[in-house]
Write a structure and sequence with these properties.
Largest sheet: 7 strands, mixed
Strand content: 25-35%
CATH class: Alpha Beta
Order of helices and strands: EHEHHEEHEEHEHH
Radius of gyration: 17 Å
Shape: globular
Number of strands: 7
Length: about 200
């Protein structure tokens, strides 16, 4: 059985490639904000939202006989949910809100086969950003460039974004967007990887 990643995220693609996986990446075409709206109205938790988005992405790809991998993250700061910033001003506002505080990333990953979810996993990481002045935030955004708009929280830990933090608890791969160790274990269990 072959694997399809329901995403065109360069980070998720790199994680899977670096792990030696053979797969095809397809954009799922899911409107995440439209999917989240009723969930938020119902009071869904960050974990429930991350799972719902991951499931929707995996189920959006119709590929009988193939295993579809969907994943998503939700950033939660004391009950406030963040999405990818739309511009530099929004990125600066997100970093200012996170500075000096601890937030949580809920990262969900699911596998679907023949239109059914057959496996799912959620990982939580806690990240504490160091206190930052507005000048420090602007220097960071100058250094990060457009990459500050690629993820919730306006940072990429694998780049200059690591300089924003004073403490991190949790799985590094989950923070990047894909809990690799549980995923690889499940792919081995299913015979897609050698034991």
């Amino acid at each position: 059985m072959t694997l399809i990643l329901a995403s065109t995220s360069s980070t998720r693609i790199a994680l899977l490639r670096n792990a030696g996986l053979t797969f095809e990446a397809i954009a799922p075409g899911v409107d995440e904000r439209a999917l989240e709206t009723p969930l938020l109205a119902q009071g869904a938790s960050p974990t429930e939202i991350a799972l719902a988005l991951s499931r929707a992405k995996a189920l959006a790809i119709a590929a009988p006989g193939r295993l579809i991998l969907g994943g998503d993250q939700v950033l939660d700061l004391d009950g406030e949910r963040f999405v990818k910033p739309v511009d530099r001003a929004a990125a600066a506002a997100q970093i200012a809100a996170l500075a000096g505080r601890t937030h949580r990333l809920r990262t969900a990953v699911v596998l679907a086969e023949n239109g059914e979810i057959v496996w799912e996993h959620v990982s939580t990481a806690s990240l504490t950003m160091r206190p930052l002045t507005s000048e420090a935030i602007e220097r960071y955004l100058d250094a990060a460039g457009d990459s500050a708009l690629w993820s919730v929280g306006a940072y990429l830990l694998e780049g200059v974004g690591i300089q924003l933090f004073q403490a991190i608890e949790g799985d590094y791969f989950s923070i990047l967007g894909l809990p690799m160790l549980p995923l690889l274990a499940e792919l081995r269990r299913r015979g897609l990887l050698p034991s």
